[in-house]
Amino acid sequence: MLPSEKNVEILTDFGLTGNQAKVYLATARLRLASVGQISKASKVRREDVYRILPKLEKLGLVERLLGTPTKIRATPVEEALSILIKHEEDTARERVSALKTKTKTFLKHFAHAPRLELEEKAHFALLSKRESIMSKMLTMVKNAEREFDIACSGRKIMPFIHNFAEQLKRIIKKGVNVRIISDLAGYEDTLPRVIKEQISPGNSIDLRYADLPSSHYMIVDFKEALISTATEGNMGENPCLWTNSDSLTGVFQGDFENLWHNSVSWKKGNKRRIEAHARRSKRS
User: Fold this and answer.
1) How wide is the angle at C-alpha 185 spanned by C-alphas 182 and 188, nearest 5°?
2) Tens digits of per-residue pLDDT, 161-198?
3) Residues 123-161 pLDDT 10s
């Protein structure tokens, strides 16, 4: 691809059409030129150049100098690119503002629309993409009203806390009981410190340790669960099964309660790790 063609392609990314880019570039190279000269240099028909120039003027990329014949002068390239970037930013802001207004209107109309009464059934969804898994986790945390339970390894719970610290703070503030079961970490256990620093300085989160669960999962309000299909890897790396089935959610809730009953508080877990570390150090 010739350099001039490449420049035309780049300028189209800034919001210009192909012919607008050609006319501007020809004018910028000529510095000061008539319409005929610009048409010849850009290989754009004269009548099209006449149609394009007012649009480039409006954008601030060229200006007309009075005289006979009329001469066209281009705004310097660096300044022109800044103008185009600002134009794209303004356009994006206007579009976002318009969408926000339409969102309010849509939700208002949708709320008053008649709803079909359908028989409630259990649903299942297999989520394989990280984005969809993270989105489902976010929705579940935000929707929690009474209880939020999660059982998974320290390797997975740490990024979970990092990603959803703000949402966890909010549900704790509104009175949701948050319980976490994780596996016994090594001698240096940073999980309690991370919870304290990122979520709460108090005891608003119940953290306990148990043998690594046979599967990793989270349960919200005893009515929906998200289950990872594999225990290895980080959060979102493995497909997850989401369900609001009472029977399946009940199975995992029962598993969680059993783990919770046989788990130890993080303070006792820390004490056990320290004692084990001391015995190993003494033997060595």
Assistant:
1) 135
2) 888 889 998 999 899 999 999 886 554 467 777 787 77
3) 999 999 989 999 999 999 999 999 999 998 877 888 888
pTM, rounded to two decimals: 0.56
- Centroid of chain to Cα 194: 22
CATH number corresponding to 124-283: 3.30.870.10
- Is the pLDDT at 1 greater than 70? The verdict is no
| CATH code of the region 3-79 | 1.10.10.10
Long-range residue pairs from 272-281, CB within 8 A, at least 24 positions apart, any chain: 272/184, 273/184, 273/185, 273/186, 273/187, 273/189, 274/187, 276/187, 277/187
Sequence ranges of the domains in the chain: 3-79, 124-283
Q: What is the pLDDT, as a whole number, of residue 69?
A: 83
| Residue 129 identity | K
3-state secondary structure the chain: CCHHHHHHHHHHHCCCCHHHHHHHHHHHHHCEECHHHHHHHHCCCHHHHHHHHHHHHHHCCEEEECCCCCEEEECCHHHHHHHHHHHHHHHHHHHHHHHHHHHHHHHHHHHCCCCCCCCCCCCEEEECCHHHHHHHHHHHHHHCCCEEEEECCHHHHHHHHHHHHHHHHHHHHCCCEEEEEEECCCCCCCHHHHHHHHCCCCCCEEEEEECCCCCCEEEECCCEEEEECCCCCCCCCCCEEEECCHHHHHHHHHHHHHHHHCCEEHHHHHHHHHHHHHHHHHHC
pLDDT confidence of residue 89: 94
